[in-house]
Design a protein that fits this description.
The chain is 27% helix and 22% strand. The chain is of the alpha/beta class. The strands form 4 sheets. Strands 4, 5, 6, 13, 14, 15, 16, 17, 18 and 19 form a 10-stranded mixed sheet that branches. Strand 15 and strand 16 form a beta hairpin.
Length: 447
């Protein structure tokens, strides 16, 4: 399997889809695949639709961190469950998902960062997570050879890493073996609505009758929802990642400071990225929702580069249709896989930073580089909720750049919500209505 997955990747699940189902899941990223798997285990007939390829977008383009550390307190209980589920599902699948121990370590360059880490540890303790503080000397021993000496660190030894381009397709194959109908290269064009509620989905291959639909469409979710009269202030930002050629092992886990993040890969190289650096393409949704994002932009004013125009056919491009008919080509067919070019600015920034941090490596040679579009919410936590204005429609999106690790937990929660079971976690924070009912937009004390 090459990485990231893109349009040249062979179709593994050609379909066709059936004429009816209990639930249709739109979008085969990690959350959608996991939800489909658990819905099937709840005894429901499930169809999982993907306009391109399983994990073709952000679910194969992320860092591969399975991270409890630094999570928003409302996400953390779900993430603790997700870590357990990764281990369980890897065993059940019988496939190599690239899961490996190593932990996650955040390096502090200032006393202020150390204080922020100390503040967050209370949430780890409340959830029995093994996070702890480290001294300068302990950091030097953990990751030897770094040219920078840090004030200290926050570390969670039980955190893991996985290879996204292996893990999510393996989950999809597990779901298919257990009875989920997975169909790639098949866009869900519109919802079929009857009597003011969901009656099914109109796909490019025909109609599927279904009383319930789950949208896990990542960066495309807002566009799909708005076409059906459901407003959600979601944006998407470009994040760039690179894979180095083989290098000596300095640490097996994931490490980040305020400028660079890296983690060991199973092929002997490292995945490297600029920690908080993103590109935002300005389009209609960006203008419409700008005031909901002002606090985020104000907290990190130099971490985002702005572009006045999205590339053609992107979800928030000026020329992307906002309305279409189910019997015609939709925006989702025009862009099967959102495959943005890597940012040259970001590549220069983090490859240079990695080289300076480990001067003994010499010139860093890259095996490849790629980018993905992260589905972002104003408070950086997802929407996990029903669409109250459209009975039968459920939403699981806005994972805000940390969805790979938590994906199985999110999928399990969504499956039980749809099946009418108790979700097992307090989901108040994840309501869609928080953006319209006067609730203050509150980014949690996440790191």
């Amino acid at each position: 399997m090459q990485f990231p997955i893109h349009i040249a990747t062979p179709v593994a699940h050609p379909g066709p889809h059936p004429d009816s189902a209990d639930v249709v899941v739109i979008g085969a990223g990690v959350a959608g695949v996991s939800a489909a798997l658990f819905l099937n285990r709840r005894g429901l007939k499930v169809v999982l639709l993907e306009k391109g390829r399983v994990a073709g977008e952000q679910s194969s383009r992320n860092w591969g961190w399975i991270r409890q550390q630094g999570r928003d307190p409302d996400e953390l209980p779900i993430m603790v469950e997700a870590r357990r589920l990764w281990l369980q599902l890897a065993e059940e699948s019988g496939e190599d998902m690239g899961l490996a121990p190593g932990g996650v370590t955040y390096l502090a360059t200032s006393d202020k960062e150390m204080a922020q880490f100390e503040d967050w540890i209370q949430y780890a303790r409340a959830n029995d997570v093994d996070s702890h503080m480290m001294t300068t000397a302990e950091v030097d021993d953990l990751v030897p050879g770094m040219a920078t000496r840090y004030k200290g660190a926050l570390r969670t030894p039980s955190d893991m890493r996985g290879e996204p381009w292996l893990a999510v397709p393996a989950l999809a194959r597990l779901a298919a073996r257990e009875g989920v109908t997975v169909v790639e290269h098949c866009a869900a064009r519109t919802l079929d609505i009857s009597g003011g509620k969901v009656a099914g989905v109109v796909t490019e291959q025909g109609r599927i009758a279904a009383p319930q639909v789950l949208l896990t469409g990542g960066a495309w979710s807002s566009l799909f929802l708005r076409a059906h009269g459901v407003a959600m202030p979601q944006l998407s930002v470009r994040a760039t990642v690179a894979a180095t050629e083989q290098l000596p092992t300095v640490h097996e886990g994931g490490v980040a400071d305020d400028k660079i993040a890296f983690r060991r890969r199973n092929d002997g190289g490292y995945s490297i990225a600029a920690g908080g650096f993103h590109d935002l393409y300005i389009g209609p949704d960006a203008f419409r929702n700008v005031f909901k994002y002002l606090h985020v932009l104000g907290e990190h004013p130099f971490s985002t580069r702005y572009h006045l125009k999205s590339p053609a056919a992107y979800p928030d491009a000026w020329g992307t249709p906002r309305r279409w008919d189910g019997d015609r080509e939709s925006p989702f067919e025009r862009m099967r896989i959102l495959n943005p070019a890597p940012s040259k600015v970001a590549l220069k920034k983090f490859t240079g930073g990695f080289s300076r941090l480990f001067p003994e490596f010499g010139e860093i040679r890259l095996r490849t580089a790629w980018a993905g579009m992260i589905d972002l919410m104003p408070d950086t936590v997802p929407v996990l909720d029903r669409a109250e204005a459209l009975p039968g429609l459920w939403i699981g999106t806005g994972l805000s750049g940390h969805g790979f690790g938590i994906g199985p937990g999110i999928g399990r929660v969504l499956a039980d919500l749809i099946a009418g079971n108790a979700p097992g976690h307090d989901l108040t924070r994840f309501r869609l209505a928080r953006f319209s009912d006067g609730t203050p937009i509150r980014p949690g004390p996440a790191l």
